[in-house]
Amino acid sequence: MLNLKIFSQVSLQKGAAVITYNLMNSGSDSLYAYLCKSIKRDILHGTLKPGERLPSKRTFASNLGVSVVTVENAYAQLIAEGYIYSIPKRGFYVADFSNLTAQPQKEIPAFSEEKIPLTGGDSSYFADFSSNQTSSDLFPFTIWSKVIREILNDSRVQLMTNSPCGGIFALRESIAQYLKDFRGMSVRPEQIIIGAGTEYLYGLLIQLLGSDRMYAVENPGYRKPERIYNSYHVPCARISMDEAGVQVPELERAGADIVHITPSHQYPTGIVMPISRRYELLAWASRKDGRYIIEDDYDSELRLSGQPIPTLHSIDMSGKVIYMNTFTKTLCSTVRISYMILPQPLLKPFYENLSFYSCTVSNFEQYTLARFIEEGKFESHVNRLRSHYRKKRDMFLEALHSSRLQDMAEISGSEAGFHFLLTLRTDVPQETVIARARSKSIKLVPLSAYYYGDAPEHVQNIYVMNFSSLEVSRAEEICKRLYACCG
């Protein structure tokens, strides 16, 4: 039993901030999650000032009566989200983003719910690091088929009733409740629009926001959004990134109206956008009418270390963030069910101008997924996935560190999702490494392939390693073959 101390004012460390918390109020949160929330709240409220030093892990743990691991996990999560930073041998400090808060949204009359329809590759390679194919062993076939049978027996009338344009209410309600329980997001079901894949939803957004706007994408970034924007003949700017994400001054110079980003796990670099840059982006969006941020949260449930990073949507006070997510990562790549969350100002124009579209996901899939979420089966499945991919990642990294490749390899961005970056320190040109790997039945995709235009020289021989379809029993042999490509 942990000895949870209740105290009023305690100076935890000479020169460090004075922090007091009552850990008896943690409720259903784990101790480290509650401690993380408490520190975050004090930072946001200004109780902890920018640049202020936090207590050491050991001193803090001793005064709270908890383990050092509890404090260590809380600090690690705060660093990942950008609220604090560490300086080796000096300690932990509060980050400075005090001047980057977005303007609050003007009062917008609630849109009447009465006007809203709420119801009714297979690869031949020995190792293919470009593939995100889901293994059939991971899909919950037995549970899914049981839920389908229940739906076929219980919901025959609903299955034969045409779905509203935004999707059946049962699924939208289930998603809204899931987001509230597990992501801390407060959304109404009618804000959620269901579609067969994010590509379809991008098309709807272009029609909703306008084809005369300037859209912007991350550089480097996932190439498909730009291709979709180009197919709709809308102007699209490519915005360079630094270590915190897209650069806001470049957004201004490009005259962008809408920016498409992956802030919680940038693809392909793996960057987690810190809280300071998030507020900077929100401030950019709030400075001009018609600006919006598309937050693509494509693999948020699969963060393998710590808690999922809070969404940009959850701190948006101006109604400027359009949130998007998909079930293709958590269920399987062939389940084409995605959704977006429209901010309040966009609801009326969407339902007035685009409600003639039929929902592109069948009722059978929508009702099945709704019940799958409602009964807690989706949560259990995601927990199983995290465990599976964490073990797969760890086994591959262990094989790499035990191989001759260790001295010339560097791993980054391995905390979340299905991919990480592998940097090979070798004088062998990138094109030669890729060709040699292909001759050894290994498919590599370089980071430079995700740049628009010429990639900078420093990203040569950095590779995007998607490991979801990797057979870990081959990990040792894969490392041997990769090593042979570098000599």
TrEMBL record:
User: What Pfam families has UniProt attached to this entry?
Assistant: Aminotran_1_2, GntR
Gene Ontology MF: a single term: transaminase activity
Q: Taking every annotated instance into account, which residue ranges of this chain make up the domain HTH gntR-type?
A: 29-97
- Which keywords annotate this record? Aminotransferase, DNA-binding, Transcription, Transcription regulation, Transferase
What PANTHER family does the record tag this protein with? HTH-TYPE TRANSCRIPTIONAL REGULATORY PROTEIN GABR
The protein depicted here goes by the name PLP-dependent aminotransferase family protein
